[in-house]
## 1
Amino acid sequence: MQMGVTWLAILQVTAIRAAPHVLTACGPAILFYVHKGGAFLQIKVRLFATLREGRGKEIVLELGDSPIVQDVIDTLKIKSEDISILLKNGRDTSRNQALSEGDTLSIFPPVGGG
């Protein structure tokens, strides 16, 4: 593989969108590779409730260049107002928190009811 090449391996994809240096896909069992040079970091993303629609329940992202939580949100095209709780490895986190190899990011939408 050449440095700087964006590629991905996907199983059971329902939709794919591509843009320069970013590739996104929707569906279960997705393995992303977004690469702009440098080393890959593997991050597991767990989505809950309405955030699963068109994205799946669990996604493994491989990101490079010192990713932060906001990079994952942007890659998955999740709107800010659709996020209520962010957990990194089971603990409360912020959008500007750095991610490391093997981290698990859980994203929850606002909960309504009455």
## 2
Amino acid sequence: MRGVYPQNDGSALVRGSVPVAALNRAMAWDLPEELAATVAGLLIHEAAAIPARGQMFAFYDLRFEVLRKNRNRITILRVTPQHAPGAPQPRPAASRPPRPTRRAVEELRIAA
């Protein structure tokens, strides 16, 4: 299947424009075809946002990692069955680190 590149570890590199039905046929997976036309569309639907490059999500017993984006368009993903050996763990979305307390800031000043 054009746009789906199976890897030796059981994962697949997938173009975001690949139809969900085509990915299901190529990899013998069972992703819902009624929620979105393309793999990128399905990821955006499930994430309820446009993910950042490097962000990972787990749903439908698969892990989706955004490898390449062009503006708001997801162009390449790595899709890995969760049961595959060495399957990567999803990383949380980027967020602001907690602000240090005033006491911690003062302790840093004293130590410096």
## 3
Amino acid sequence: MSARNVALHFFTSYRKVCFTMFNPTINLDHSTDALETLSPELRQSIHLAYYSGFSNEQVADLLGVEVTVVEERLSDGLASLRDAMAVAA
């Protein structure tokens, strides 16, 4: 399964997450709430790549950065989202 498919599965699988076990002051009702916790650069890259369907090269062109920067932003952003939406087993 490609990284893109894993991310799409991640976003569609978790619609409502409440992880009060980790921090009682944080309550994320939707994956879009988790996106709001990201920096604007990470959020914009994820939105363009995963919600708008642009390739990494297209995202780089749109943002005026190198492809490696986009790949790093996507990797960092997805890691942050995984942490934000983690659920205790």
